[in-house]
Design a protein that fits this description.
243 residues, mainly alpha, Helicase, Ruva Protein, domain 3, Zinc Finger, Delta Prime, domain 3, 2 domains, two-stranded parallel ribbon, globular, DNA binding
Length: 243
C-alpha cells in the first residue's frame, strides 16, 4: 500500500485504448478512483489559435488576430518552433506589440504534417488544406504509397458503413441512418466520426465507387512510373474527393 503522502505520477507518450484496457491501468483506476488524467496532445487546427493567444499572453505580449493566424499557419504541429518564434518576437520588440507585419518579418514555414491529417482534410471537404498538407508531405519525402494506404483504409471503413440493407441505385446518396450503431460496430474513434458523417452526406454510391477506381489508378502509377507526376495525381485526387 502506498503512503497517503506519496503521489505517483505516470507519464505516457500517448494514452491509447489498448493502454486503457491493460491490467495496470484498470487496477490504478480501481485503487485511486479520484486520480486525474491530464491529456497533453498537440492542439489541432481549431484549437491552435487559442493556444497561441494564451502563450503570447503568458509572455506579456499583445498580438493581433491576423498575426495569430499567421503563426498557426506557419507552425502547425510544431509547438517547439512556435514557442521559439514567440520568444524571439518577445526579444525583438520592446513594446511587446505583435502586428501581422512584425510577425511576418520573422516567421518561417515550419509546419509538420502527417498522412492522417491529409486524409482528415479530404474527409471534411477542405480541398485547399488537403493540397497544402500534400505539399508539406512531399517536402518531407513521405512515400506516396503510405498516403494511398492511409486513404484506402478509411475508404474501406466508409464502404462498410454505407452498405445498403436493400438494393440501391448508383446515384442514391449514402445512408445516414443508424450511423452511431455503425461507428460503434466498426470501433471508429469519437474524434473521427464527424469527418465520416461529413463525407457520407456528400457522396453517392457512384462517386464512392469512382473514388476507389481512381485510387487504384493512382496506386498503379505510383508502383510503375516512380516519377513526380504521382504527386500531381494525388493533388487532383484530393480535389475530386473534396468536391
Amino acid at each position: 500500500m502506498l503512503h497517503p503522502d506519496v503521489l505517483p505520477i505516470f507519464r505516457l507518450a500517448k494514452l491509447t485504448k489498448t493502454a486503457e484496457n491493460q491490467p495496470w491501468f484498470i487496477a490504478a483506476n480501481q485503487y485511486a478512483p479520484e486520480a486525474v488524467l491530464v491529456n497533453c496532445q498537440t492542439p489541432n487546427v481549431e484549437q491552435l489559435p487559442r493556444w497561441v493567444s494564451n502563450r503570447a499572453k503568458s509572455l506579456g505580449l499583445s498580438i493581433d488576430e491576423d498575426a495569430v493566424q499567421l503563426l498557426c499557419y506557419s507552425y502547425e504541429n510544431n509547438l517547439l518552433a512556435l514557442k521559439q518564434a514567440l520568444q524571439l518576437l518577445d526579444l525583438l520588440y520592446a513594446d511587446r506589440k505583435l502586428s501581422f507585419a512584425r510577425v511576418n518579418a520573422v516567421v518561417e514555414q515550419s509546419s509538420v504534417f502527417t498522412p492522417f491529417q491529409w486524409v482528415d482534410a479530404i474527409l471534411s471537404g477542405k480541398g485547399n488544406r488537403a493540397r497544402r498538407i500534400l505539399i508539406g508531405l512531399k517536402d518531407e519525402d513521405v512515400q506516396p504509397i503510405i498516403l494511398l494506404r492511409t486513404l484506402q483504409r478509411d475508404l474501406m471503413t466508409l464502404l462498410e458503413i454505407s452498405k445498403p440493407e436493400q438494393p440501391a441505385k448508383l446515384d442514391d446518396p449514402l445512408p445516414t441512418a443508424q450511423l452511431r450503431e455503425q461507428f460503434d460496430r466498426l470501433k471508429v474513434w469519437q474524434n473521427r466520426r464527424l469527418l465520416f458523417s461529413q463525407i457520407i452526406q456528400r457522396l453517392t454510391y457512384r462517386k464512392l465507387y469512382l473514388f476507389f477506381q481512381q485510387l487504384a489508378d493512382v496506386e498503379r502509377s505510383a508502383k510503375q512510373e516512380f516519377s513526380d507526376d504521382i504527386w500531381q495525381q494525388l493533388e487532383a485526387l484530393s480535389v475530386r474527393f473534396c468536391i
